[in-house]
Design a protein that fits this description.
The structure holds two protein chains of two kinds.
Chain A: E1 3-5, H1 6-20, E2 24-28, H2 45-49, E3 54-56, H3 61-72, E4 77-81, H4 92-99, H5 102-105, E5 115-120, H6 135-139, E6 145-147, H7 152-164, E7 169-174, E8 181-183, E9 197-200, E10 205-209, H8 212-225, E11 231-235, E12 238-240, H9 244-254, E13 257-264, H10 269-281, E14 290-294, H11 303-309, H12 313-323
Chain B: H1 5-30, H2 45-53, E1 60-62, H3 68-73, H4 78-85, H5 119-132, E2 139-144, H6 151-162, E3 167-173, E4 176-177, E5 180-181, H7 182-185, E6 202-206, H8 210-225, E7 231-236, H9 254-260, H10 267-277, H11 283-306
Parallel strand pairs in B: 1-2, 2-3, 3-7, 6-7
Antiparallel strand pairs in B: 4-5
The chains are: A alpha/beta, B alpha/beta.
Amino acid sequence: MPEKTYRDALKDGLREEMIRDERVFIMGEDVGLNWGGAFKVTKGLADEFGEARVRDTPISENTIAGTAVGAAITGMIPVAEIMFGDLITLAMDQVCNQAAKMRYMFGGQTSVPLVLRTVFGGGKNIASHHSQSLESWFMHTPGLKIAVPAFAYDVKGLIKTAIRDPNPVLFLEHKLVYDKKEDVPDEDYTVPFGQAKVRREGEDVTVWGTFFMLHKALEVADELAKDGISVEVIDPRTLAPLDKKTLIESVKKTGRLVLVTEETKTGATTAEIAATVQEEAFDWLDAPIKRVNAPDTPVPFSPPLEGYFIPDNKRIAQAIREIV
Amino acid sequence: MTVDKKTLKELYTRTLKVRRFEEKVWDLFGENVVPGTLHLYLGQEAVAAGVTTALKKTDWIQSTHRGHGHVVAKGADMNAALAELLGKETGSCKGKGGSMHITQFNVGVLGATGVVASGLPIAVGAALSCQMRGTDDVVACFFGDGASNNGTFGESLNMSAIWKLPLIWIVENNLYAMGTPIKMMCPSATIAQRADGYCIPNVVVDGNNALAVYEATVEAVKRARAGEGPTLIECQTYRMKGHSRFDAAKYRPEKETKYWLSEERDAVRIIREMAIEQGALTETQAEKIDAKISKDVEKAADFAKKSDFPKPEETLDDVFAEVA
């Protein structure tokens, strides 16, 4: 099985879906011929499929998202890209009021099979407007599905599931995982929504996290193993639908839970997960649930400041040690 | 343009149908059987009638928060439309949408929206879909004078022009955005001239004259189907009632209301006299059509009133489409 980067695995998934179904098309700022996407995910696709199906757009985020909605309800399957997750603020009406609510408020008369790709996360010293992690806003919006792939194998399988889903899917990526490599099959496969993956099995404590924090948590788990601490690491893979079962079973086994994401703490997905676990597995908890998040500030620019902001291995390890 | 008698009769019929429908809604509101609020289309009937008569069944329209007239003129089932306004399970949106989301996809309505100016991007997407799928369908997008001050106006007009989309932008300039006069909020003499900046051909017509609206739309549809791109039509018109159900519109100067709400300017009278003068209808035929429409509207009201409310637990249905 060939080893591929997350970026190439994602591109393969997009490409294969475009070959499979002619209704699928890509649109967004600089996704086409001259650039191939700010993170080069769509590079080369415009050469292969033409500029109509890999369509550059003006800098008009709300209308990019709205165009995807209009195309989706009339027989196309758009995969629209918002260049940075921070810029999705400009498209909130179309994402949260239109795409998410249309099927419901029209009584099931239509469905909105679109994928909106964007990228979250810090670590590149590009400051407050290009580094945020805003996934909890969308978890709070009924009607959206949310994929959070953190590994190359998953990103290909999840993009295919997203494209084949008849509902609006917010497909969230992370800047620091595009170059991460994994074995990725060349053939067609999907990764189902709503099924978490246990990335590492352990007995003493469960760590649930997303995106780049999963990569850090796995490193931490290796380190702690040397001290005899056995860490189970869970990757939800989608936030909506959310696989509660895998998480709850793990907590029942370990009795301890540490939640790790790059979001600012107040109102983060980690708050929702903590609430869910205390509702459904309170009696199995042997220690308070720990949360490792960024502080409640905008994302700073300067390396020592950003380094302080983003949770690191040390903080994750410390949180685990505090409850084990 | 010479218009055949059949078309004149159709224009009269549609204008009148919208009038009678909205009068009935006003009555039902008086009976206190319409929950929530309403934005009546009374006064603007000629716009919806003129535009939709120039379209074919598979063409799409995008509606607004003042949408009853658009939907009825496009050929909606009146039973399901009125039942929706009353919040009944037989409503076209199963009671999930109500007045601001009154929609019937099966007759080519993309949706009515509660967010002013949010329909424009959706219309862009639907028109792009028509173009990419190689159909000759077009999209007519209704919006008000107030919407032309929103960012989506610029984004969407621009996108429709660069991609030469089969789109007709219909501005219903009723002189007020809720209670704010458009002349306070728009520096140009017309809304139409704003389209010049996007190189979109534009025209101002009497929005109370269904024939004038129809003729302008026919030209625009011709350009759209020929791949020549969008047109903007500003229809100057006036609300007979206030913005919403409890607004008596006292802010409108008497001189202005006297002119616009005169017999002379009445949309139904204008098209009725035109049709009779040009021999498309006799007085008797006009009355017969009126009697038939009034009877149908009455029946629809009965149907709506007798229909059941949805079961409370139906709140949970139709958030997502089933995955195949």
